[in-house]
Design goal:
Number of helices: 9
Strand content: under 5%
Amino acid sequence: MPSSASRPRRPAPTESPASPADATPGDAVEPQDDDRPDDAQPEKAPPENAPPENAQAQDAQAQDAPKRSSKAGRNLPVAIGVGLAMGAVILVALLTVRQAWIAIVAVSAVIGTWELFGALHRGAGIRLSRVPVLVGGQAMIWLAWPFDTEGILGALLVTVIGCFLWRMRLGAGGFVRDVGASMLVLCWIPLCMAFATMLVVPADGAARVLVFLIVVICSDTGGYALGALIGKHPMAPKVSPKKSWEGFAGSIIAGSTGACLSIALLLDAHWWFGLIVGPLLVATAVTGDLVESLIKRDLGIKDMGSVLPGHGGLMERLDSLVTSAPVAWLLLLVLVPLPGT
């Protein structure tokens, strides 16, 4: 038998890397598996004495594999194409019959609500009041046009009572959890999106909607670009390890620039209003993005859905818009007088 000196020694155990939950903003945080693209999972290291031909085969296979995903884990060309197509549909609607914006908001609210329903049920087994939330959410969006904020509030109150009654039939087990989740969905998606309807109600409503969209899109684009280039300091490592303070600075710069230009050119108002609107909408847009990331991390899922190629679920695009809509409506109402007033 070989002596103990000739036996290969086992490698000393190494400490496991700290999880994002234990990380601090100064740490270099690695994203969890649910934040990695499907084709960017960590590969097992080959044995130390692996034959050279195995390494060559692995290299050849890696070169042959298509590079489908960007640094953010998305198929960037497809995502850009889908985003441009969606933007074209919205632009045509606003420049022709601006009321068509309400239909776009209503359909988006149904899809986003259904995606969140599915995610909460798959990830946590929550039984939501689907019918009251879907019907009441549509009522809030469509009643905002003729009845203003009174229509939104009235539909919200009726829907809340409907959620209570709908869930009562299943008994007491999990009642607080299920009703609370229904309220979260109701207030986060249809209620906030009802204020996106309110943006288009005035005579200059098409311009107000465009200002809102331009600022949020500039925020997302500027944050992605600068974060991908120089992002090193995690902004919220326990929520979204890829989001950096450098990216947030890019969002502030791009969002404020877009706000100044769009408010001056589209609404004929003081350009410096953009220095107020821009940073505030960037803050709400980033908050919406972080909220969605936190929900997905809590539920242990990667995407809310798969309806949009290159994006995942529609909520991947709606998260920052939804939370920004009420703030955009309020800021523009205060800063830019309505036509005829």
